[in-house]
Q: What sequence folds into this?
């Protein structure tokens, strides 16, 4: 069944699989494992080396190597799952190579997403942080639910439009800082600090930094360090955004009060 | 009572982050349960021991074991359970506070927050490694149970 797979075809498909997995937030060891798994099922001795910024696929004893450049992306775990299901079915022999190629292409192009209202609702739920239960007042947590929606929307809507990296995260922080400080100076909220920390939960790169240490422990030092530095700078731009937002809001409030 | 509230809020938090990171629908419920149980474990350990390390380590072990088990049962990659379940434990807020102090030029607090964030991240990562070692011991047993349950359904 697998006789007619050409080497070039296989390498191309493997590169595509690796690229989708990396940009959707899979760990590098998993990417390498999946690609080599597909290669072995197609009776080729494939080697894959993945870092977070580049992916190399090659057949052992051959000179050809396929290089794919990867950009850091957001989490899209549904794609990881679909690729995983496809590769498993291919290895089990339930689908042939042509079908695998076709489906991978479809997955690459398809936008698999929850609808916007669902995502916004999700972000709002994350904005009520369990960390602050019984520390912040319930009213503040309730406000964080709504401030979180605006922060998430600001970051998510601006990120496809602004090409400069890290600006979208900064805008999210700016919105949250602005709204929270405004609510406090209007006397509605008790503590702007609590609202800000809580409402930033969907934006802040906590999961990324934990995953980066998992990579480092897994001896994928390069990917781990790249992820960690990226997370640090995202946190930095959010922090700067909040500081600016809070400053702007207090200026606005003073101007408004002075008039 | 407090534990119940913590359980519900962390469940909602995990499901919410699952929606944001776009997990497959069938893994929302197992991820939510894993996340909330891990948070309760964290909360209970925190009542006894006030340090950052032991509580996060315990929570990571709970996520690691439950996550691997549900990955086998629901046939999803483990990472899909890990990422949403981690959201309430992870040092994102502290990282932000640290970088904010950095922006404001407050070196002492920057150092303190960054150190805490590092401690939590490493405690969680090491917890996962330990959980995977434990899970590899119970995996053959689990596979036997799963395959025995699935066979009558296939026929």
A:
């Amino acid at each position: 069944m697998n006789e007619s797979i050409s080497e070039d075809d296989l390498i191309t498909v493997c590169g595509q699989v690796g690229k989708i997995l990396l940009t959707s937030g899979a760990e590098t060891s998993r990417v390498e494992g999946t690609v080599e798994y597909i290669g072995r099922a197609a009776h080729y001795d494939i080697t894959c080396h993945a870092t977070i910024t580049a992916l190399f696929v090659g057949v052992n004893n051959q000179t050809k190597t396929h290089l794919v450049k990867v950009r850091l992306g957001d989490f899209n775990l549904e794609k990881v799952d679909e690729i995983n299901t496809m590769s498993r079915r291919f290895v089990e022999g339930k689908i042939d190579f042509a079908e695998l190629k076709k489906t991978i292409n479809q997955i690459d192009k398809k936008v698999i997403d929850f609808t916007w209202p669902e995502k916004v609702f999700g972000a709002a739920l994350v904005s009520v942080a369990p960390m602050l239960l019984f520390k912040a007042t319930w009213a503040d947590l309730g406000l964080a639910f709504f401030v979180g929606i605006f922060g998430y929307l600001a970051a998510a809507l601006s990120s496809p439009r602004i090409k400069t990296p890290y600006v979208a995260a900064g805008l999210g922080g700016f919105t949250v800082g602005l709204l929270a400080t405004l609510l406090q100076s209007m006397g509605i909220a008790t503590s702007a600090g609590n609202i800000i920390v809580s409402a930033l939960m969907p934006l802040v790169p906590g999961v990324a930094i934990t995953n980066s240490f998992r990579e480092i422990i897994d001896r994928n030092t390069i990917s781990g360090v790249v992820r960690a530095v990226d997370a640090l700078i995202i946190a930095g731009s959010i922090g700067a955004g909040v500081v600016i937002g809070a400053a702007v809001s207090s200026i606005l409030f003073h101007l408004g009060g002075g008039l | 009572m407090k534990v119940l509230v913590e359980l519900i809020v962390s469940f909602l938090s995990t499901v919410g982050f699952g929606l944001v990171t776009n997990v497959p629908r069938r893994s929302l419920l197992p991820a939510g349960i894993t996340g909330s149980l891990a948070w309760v474990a964290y909360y209970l350990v925190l009542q006894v021991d006030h340090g950052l390390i032991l509580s996060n380590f315990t929570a990571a072990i709970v996520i690691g074991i439950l996550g691997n088990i549900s990955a086998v049962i629901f046939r999803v990659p483990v990472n899909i359970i890990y990422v949403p379940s981690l959201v309430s434990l992870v040092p994102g807020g502290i990282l932000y506070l640290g970088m904010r102090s950095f922006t404001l030029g407050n070196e002492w607090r920057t150092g303190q927050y960054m150190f805490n964030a590092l401690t939590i991240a490493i405690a969680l990562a090491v917890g996962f490694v330990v959980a995977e070692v434990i899970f590899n011991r119970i995996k053959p047993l689990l596979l036997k149970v799963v395959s025995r349950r699935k066979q009558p359904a296939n026929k």
In short: Residues 2-144 of chain B form one domain. Chain B touches chain A through 50 residues (CB under 8 Å). The mean pLDDT of chain B is 87.
